Hints:
The structure is a single chain. By secondary structure, the chain is an alpha+beta fold. It has helices at about 5-20, 25-40, 85-95, and strands spanning about 45-55, 60-70, 75-80, 100-105, 115-120. It has a single domain, classed as Alpha-Beta Complex (Lambda Exonuclease, Chain A), CATH 3.90.320.10. Helices cover about 35% and strands about 30% of the residues. A hairpin with a 3-residue loop joins strand 2 and strand 3.
Amino acid sequence: MTLDELTYKINGCAMKVHNTLGNGFQEVIYQRCLSIELERAGLHYVREQPHEIYYEGIEVGTRRADFIVEDQVMVELKAVINLEDAHLAQAKNYVVAYNKPIGLLINFGAKSLQFKKIYHSNRQYRP
């Protein structure tokens, strides 16, 4: 499956969740529901996979992306009224930290589902 096909399937799963629940729930509810839809779609994923963050070779903390799907796509969920630059920066940092070619930032908090694709700047993207 190409990355474009994979991100299309993930977005479809997210749309199903948003169409069913609408907006207004906490992020964790959308995360649990998306997990169900990813399973139904036959996609392999890891939820909240920890990843160490280093500063000049010293471990300074751990971050957790909401999903890593098919070991290729980092998925970060939000449940906010509007996405802000800080959310995009966080998703971009996760794509780089997890060394994935692409990430999806999905916001369930708006009236319409919002998607943003984030590309790893140092990796070749092959749709």
